[in-house]
Write a structure and sequence with these properties.
By secondary structure, the chain is mainly α. The protein folds into two domains: about 80 residues, no CATH class; about 230 residues, Orthogonal Bundle (Hypothetical protein af1432), CATH 1.10.3210.10. Helix content is about 50%, strand content about 5%. It has a two-stranded antiparallel ribbon. Strands 2-3 form a two-stranded antiparallel ribbon. It starts with 17 loop residues before the first strand and ends in a 20-residue tail after the last helix. The relative contact order is 0.11. The structure holds fe (ii) ion (2 copies). The site of one fe (ii) ion (FE2) has 5 residues, from loops.
Length: about 350
């Protein structure tokens, strides 16, 4: 944490005692094992005991009341982790289409990241990110066409998690094309990509979406140090995978001798940042690739950008619905992501 600098922090009442979970991760008629609370009038009220199932009518009622988040006690976290892992496997096995599988994976990983970013200093958080990475690697290796269903436009307080998921999807799909990358390394790349911006976890979301030119000097200094802070967070949580640590520490480095796994995540991270950010929405995929080519000239493995372009070009992105931002922030905004049909 930066001393002596006042930086707006996210408003998270009693973040340590209670953990927020998106309502949508609770499946109807399932038992979570963790007591569920709602936050009303400044208090946490018991909504459902962990031994009771939440039926679809109750979930619909929450939706009608626009209650997006439920809460659990931090001590109930292992039970919720086990529930999420169980549900992910069940739902993926049941998915009727690639689109369904993509939506399930995307929403579950986002929920896992939200939990992990809130309390990254315990072992459960790392375990959740590891499981999220494994499930993502498995699905992408099985069929790269799931990538467009994983990538979404990132806005609001979900921005950081959506961006992390997008970065992981691109990075894993790119890494899977490289013969020199082993399956174990693929998993590490997934974890590194999901956690690469963990150092931003405590920053206010308004700070993250502000244009760089509108930042004060202290805000800028705070943001610029996020790789360093992220590395500290991971080390504190006893993460000892050197690939993950290098990815988090060096994902903004301009050094010329970066290892391949760092280059892969940098490429995925930059591409998503260029194509998927409020205020930069006019920067389509072609323009982003052009910008990337300029910035990595002479620094990256010479065929990495070509592989990235081929990977993007191989995705079947005909379905406009998957290309349209969920909440376009600008009038007449174009889809955040377009496939460059480059041979
Ligand atoms: Fe970053
Ligand atoms: Fe990033």
């Amino acid at each position: 944490m930066l001393r002596g600098v006042s930086v707006p922090m996210a408003d998270r009442p009693m973040a340590r005692a209670y953990i927020a979970i998106p309502r949508d991760v609770i499946a109807a008629d399932t038992v979570t094992g963790a007591d569920l609370y709602i936050y009303v009038g400044g208090r946490y009220l018991l909504y459902r005991s962990g031994r009771e199932a939440v039926d679809s009518r109750s979930l619909a009622k929450l939706r009608r009341r626009s209650i997006q988040m439920l809460y659990i006690k931090a001590t109930d976290r292992p039970a919720l982790d086990a529930y999420l892992a169980r549900m992910l496997e069940l739902r993926l096995a049941d998915a009727a289409s690639l689109e369904d599988a993509g939506a399930i994976l995307r929403d579950t990983v986002r929920a896992s990241l939200r939990l992990a970013f809130q309390t990254f200093d315990d072992g459960h958080a790392i375990q959740r990110v590891r499981e999220a990475s494994e499930a993502t690697v498995r699905q992408i290796v099985e069929d790269t066409q799931i990538v467009p269903h994983l990538v979404r436009f990132a806005v609001g307080d979900e921005r950081l998690y959506v961006h992390s998921m997008n970065t992981a999807a691109y990075a894993i799909a790119l890494a899977a094309r490289r013969e020199e990358i082993t399956t174990g390394e693929l998993r590490s790349i997934g974890i590194g990509a999901l956690a690469h911006d963990i150092g931003l976890a405590t920053a206010d979301v308004r700070l993250l979406s502000r244009d760089e030119s509108a930042l004060t000097e202290s805000e800028h200094a705070y943001l610029v140090k996020h790789p360093e802070r992220g590395l500290g967070v991971l080390e504190e949580a006893e993460m000892d995978d050197p690939l993950v640590l290098e990815i988090v520490a060096d994902h903004h480095s301009n050094a010329i001798d970066l290892p391949l796994h760092v280059q892969i995540v940098q490429l995925a991270d930059s591409f998503d940042t260029l194509t998927n950010r409020p205020g930069r929405i006019d920067s389509g995929a072609y323009r982003a690739l052009y910008t990337l080519r300029e910035s990595i000239e002479g620094r990256y493995e010479h065929d990495l950008l070509r592989d990235f372009v081929l990977m993007l070009g191989s995705l079947e992105l005909e379905d406009e619905a998957t290309l349209t931002p969920l909440h376009p922030p600008l009038e007449g905004a174009k889809p955040a992501f377009r496939a460059p049909h480059v041979a």
